[in-house]
Amino acid sequence: MKRNRFISAGGMRKCYAAEIFGFPEEFLNRASDEWVLKDYLENVNGDRYDLCRKDVQTQAVAQTLGEIFSKKVKGIEGFGAFPRILPSFLVQQVGPPNYFTIEPKIDSSSYVKHINNDGLPEPPSLRSQLGQKCLAFSHWSLKFTGGRFLVCDVQGSEDALTDIQIASVDKERELFGAGNLGEGGFTQFKRSHECNPYCTLLGLERFKIASKQGSGDEYGKCGRFRKKEKLA
């Protein structure tokens, strides 16, 4: 493996372009040697192996949910294609830092974040076709998993998504990474989510939310759209 140029840094990790040698192409499932290496910043607390393992585990669960979702929407007229979620791999090397993750490189020129890890959408995604699909995917993930997991922090290009986070019920927070905000993320998403035509195509219903005042139930902003409405 060869670490090349620095790409960018976020709140917890820095990214580099990388070349990977010696792995079977069928294992990597990629017809290119363009990869991204993600390494934790020095000031991030926690065991590096555990941090990276949870990142890979989070991405794997999100990838599985994405594959199930993509198969489902193929049979829904008018929905169209949904981007794949990239795989992530845990790599160990001799010498510090010993652990980091790698994943296929995607087109950064069209990179957009649609949903944050707190469950709140990025405003432009409320109007874009891909953004609406991603929001519908997040809504579906919470329903499909019986309220256990919410796929969030959804971002990427037109054909591939990456850096996914999963918010989980509090008793399962240890399964996923530091970006897992637990049931607080559920509440944020439910209160802010406005269903779009893709939610309607999936048959998703508005969320029922317990009222803080204890005076009954509230409902999320999940409206119903007529199927003939233009998808935009």
Automatic annotation (TrEMBL):
Pfam families: Alpha_kinase
Keyword Nucleotide-binding part of the UniProt annotation: yes
GO MF annotations in UniProt: ATP binding; protein serine/threonine kinase activity
Database matches in InterPro entries: a-kinase_dom, Alpha-type_PK, Kinase-like_dom_sf
Swiss-Prot/TrEMBL keywords: ATP-binding, Kinase, Nucleotide-binding, Serine/threonine-protein kinase, Transferase
Xref: SUPFAM superfamilies: Protein kinase-like (PK-like) (SSF56112)
GO terms, biological process: myosin II filament disassembly; response to differentiation-inducing factor 1
CDD domains: Alpha_kinase
Residue intervals of the Alpha-type protein kinase domain: 1-207
Protein's name according to its UniProt entry: Alpha-protein kinase 2
Gene that encodes the chain: ALPK2
